[in-house]
Amino acid sequence: MDLTGRVAVVTGAAQGLGRAYARALAGAGAAVVLNDADADGAREAADEISAAGGTAVAEPGAVGSAEVADRLVGRAVDSYGRLDVMVTNAGVLRDRMLWKMSDDEFDAVLDVHLRGTFTCVRAAVRHMRERDGGGRIIAVGSPAIKATNG
């Protein structure tokens, strides 16, 4: 796959699958904006891609708010002139049984997984429609649900 000239944003890109997605996109020729709540991790991942010959910048921040989502799209456009791919990979795990999970822990999961996906996809689609050039949305889910017989 040749993604030369394309630009991607990857949320949750400081480690794990997000980092692997960012490396793969860069390896295929895309310029990548790496996002993560872990600012140092996002910068380290972007530096790793750049050192390997790819094109990458970090744009740290916790996804969820429209402000962060708009900032991610803005960084792609300001740095590389466009946005073609939005990968919403960011997630948080609160490994608790339902009866042990606090409201704050549940809200954090909703903010990142649901609101973060919604706001990032909305910001990306707005840009893609304005540019009239289309694009790709890749929303990553997680099977990290533990069932128990209580």
What distance lies between the first and last C-alpha atoms, to the nearest angstrom?
A: 47 Å
Figure out the total of helices: 4
Architecture per CATH nomenclature, i.e. the level-2 architecture: 3-Layer(aba) Sandwich
Domain count: 1
Question: SSE string, helix = H, strand = E?
Answer: EHEHEHEHE
Radius of gyration: 16 Å
Outline the biggest β-sheet. 5 strands, parallel
CATH class value: Alpha Beta
Key traits:
disordered C terminus, Rossmann fold, five-stranded parallel sheet, 150 residues, alpha/beta
Question: Overview of this structure, please?
Answer:
The protein has a single domain (7-138), classed as 3-Layer(aba) Sandwich (Rossmann fold). Helices cover 46% and strands 13% of the residues. It has helices at residues 16-27, 39-51, 66-80, 103-131, and strands at 7-10, 31-34, 55-58, 85-88, 136-139. A five-stranded parallel beta sheet has the order 3-2-1-4-5, sandwiched between helices. Helix 3 (66-80) runs parallel beside helix 4.
